[in-house]
Amino acid sequence: MEYLERRRDRVEERLEAVLDSVEPEELADEVRHVALSGGKRVRPTVTVLVCEALGGEPADAVDFAVGIELVHNASLVIDDIIDESELRRGSPAAWEAFGHGPAIIASDGLLGEAFNLFSTDERAMQTVSESMVELGEGEAMELVAEPSNEKEYMELARRKTGALFRAAAELGAIAADSDPYTVEAVGQYAERVGVAFQMRDDVLDATADAETLGKPAGTDAEMERPSLVEVTELTTEEANERARAESDAALESLSTIDAPESQSMEYLRDLAEFVVVRER
């Protein structure tokens, strides 16, 4: 765990430095509230681990890692407004803490800081831009035509959750100056991990309590949100099996990469296993 903690600490330090430079102070307070109130930091960890697994150094990937975490947090602000969720990571959601207008501005501020970090590399800009198109289309799909079957659910999960995971991994490969085939392979791995992550999220929403989750539980059913459990009427056990299948597919994609065995590669495999057994 010390191995991962050192890398997360490096990301956290850089994240705090980026947010400390935000002006004016009111905006800085809002973006810090959003981005520094906790979180698993899964996406930035993927960025750093992929970079290392492919021969790069953690320092090569830190700015991209922070950038993808900022994009993720910006999207959560909007999600909470749409869902009217008052709690995020055990703290008041941005709109609840500051109001709708300041929350939207905070989301914009996070995106601005993120793209400033990506602007040093054309491939990074393209990767993140494509993922945000997918994310936006996923949000629109959910609002105008909720999925009514498993196939439609999977497409939504790929866009809303898988796309940012894919970008996180591809950014790590880009930071390591990998070839296009490798960038694509790690992207496929991470997209599958992201979809499995979302499936497990749906199961937890149906089975866990708010204190454990750090956010309201049972909101999928209450809001008729298209979770895997609600859309398909699968049992939670069957939904977990679907998540496991995505995890297995992620591991298969990872196995196609021509990279030496390393601690970072081991942790990437562990992540694919962890996302389907996590409790929050």
Blueprint of the fold:
Blueprint: H1 2-20, H2 25-35, H3 42-53, H4 58-83, E1 87-88, E2 91-92, H5 94-98, H6 100-118, H7 122-144, H8 150-175, H9 180-207, H10 210-213, H11 219-222, H12 228-232, H13 236-255, H14 263-274
Antiparallel strand pairs: 1-2
Helix pairs in contact: 1-2, 1-4, 2-6, 3-4, 3-8, 3-14, 4-6, 4-8, 7-8, 8-9, 9-13, 13-14
Explain what you see.
This protein is an all-alpha fold and about 280 residues long. A hairpin with a 2-residue loop joins strand 1 and strand 2 (about 90). About 75% of the residues lie in helices and about 0% in strands. The chain has helices spanning about 1-20, 25-35, 40-55, 60-85, 95-100, 100-120, 120-145, 150-175, 180-205, 210-215, 220, 230, 235-255, 265-275; strands at about 85-90, 90. A two-stranded antiparallel sheet has the order 1-2. The protein is globular. It has a single domain, classed as Farnesyl Diphosphate Synthase (Orthogonal Bundle), CATH 1.10.600.10. The two termini are about 20 Å apart. The protein has 14 helices and two strands, in the order ααααββαααααααααα. Its cofactor is Mg(2+). InterPro entries: Isoprenoid_synthase_dom_sf, Polyprenyl_synt, Polyprenyl_synt_CS. This is Farnesyl-diphosphate synthase. Keywords: Magnesium, Metal-binding, Transferase. Belongs to the FPP/GGPP synthase family.
